[in-house]
Amino acid sequence: MRNIASILMLWYVVSIHGATSTPFQLVPDPTDCTKFSIHMLKFKWEVSCDAGKVFSRKISNCVLQNGPYDDCSNRQQNQPSITIRAYEDVFNYCAQCPTCLYPDANNCAGFYNCSKILVPVYSRFRQFEDECVYPALFDADALRCERDYKKVEGNCGGRPLLLYPCDQKRFKCVVAHCRPCEVTYPNCAGKSDGFHEWEDPNISPYFTRCQDGRTIKAERCDPSGNGTPSLFSCPKPMCRCRL
Ligand SMILES: *[C@@H]1O[C@H](CO)[C@@H](O)[C@H](O)[C@H]1NC(C)=O
Predict the structure, then answer these.
(1) 234 CB contacts (<8 Å, ≥6 apart)?
(2) pLDDT band at 18 (very low <50, low <70, confident <90, very high)
(3) What span is annotated as the signal peptide, if there is one (predicted)?
């Protein structure tokens, strides 16, 4: 590993001095995350990372397996870093890699799962299509849904962030007589964090909780014991009986 280290150091020095085409190339092994090879001119060295480490394509170095920089273990063999822009393309990509996951270029929460072949009849999703459960986002590096959207939202890389639940596929109507999403979920865009009345506060039992422009909660006050409607009131958010 010692001469590898000096090669790497030399490569690093060459690259930081702005050589446009470095003579070295570190190439991940297409099937084994713990291996990579160093290509220089006509020569090629196969190298293994130390135990417990895998080669990161992004960082071009060995990193802790399953650590924050591990972009190999979850990623299927030799999967290119691509996002799918048009639905039709997914068939081609999934044919090449039947177990891959691909981020949806049109939605930071969306992804395509090539293993998902069966689709229920009344599904909102077409074959391979999927979406993280709101408000989770799909982490394109780790290739999984991340519930803590703050960790991913700065890293959507041009994949639009759809804050309103009704803009997501999961909430679209697929049957004729379905309650429109907009009736169920108020839009929190531009609203401050916390509880809000929804519709006319004097007559509405509906309320919502907004967080970071997202509709975290959309609920209705339960009727009070004797059946009188209970209404939501702000600024002190609570359900009250209206007499
Ligand atoms: C992809 O689909 C397979 C098969 O339905 C499922 O087991 C797996 O959990 C899915 N992966 C994700 C990230 O949803």
Answers:
(1) 195, 196, 197, 201, 207
(2) very low
(3) 1-21
Give the dihedral of Cα atoms 167, 123, 135, 104; nearest 10 deg. Answer: -70
Residues with C-beta less than 6 Å from any ligand 1 atom: 101, 113, 115-116, 130, 144
Dihedral (CA of 95, 99, 103, 108) sign? positive
Task: Please write the tens of the pLDDT for every residue from 175-192.
Answer: 778 888 888 888 999 899
Query: Per mean pLDDT, which of 37-41, 66-70, 142-146, 193-197 is the most reliable?
Result: 142-146
Q: How many Cβ atoms from other residues are within 10 Å of residue 174's Cβ?
A: 11
The residue extents of the domains of the chain are: 1-69, 74-178, 186-241
Using the atom order of ligand 1, give the atom closest to the CA of residue 113: 1
Residue 78: pLDDT band by 50, 70, 90 thresholds?
Answer: very low
Measured at the CA of 197, the angle between CA 193 and CA 203, to 5 degrees, comes to 180
Three-state helix/strand/coil letters over 191-243: CCCEEEECCCCCCCCEEEEEECCEEEEEEECCCCCCCCCEEEECCCCEEEECC
Residue 28 near residue 36 (C-beta atoms within 8 A): yes
C-alpha of residue 169 to centroid of ligand 1, in Å:
17
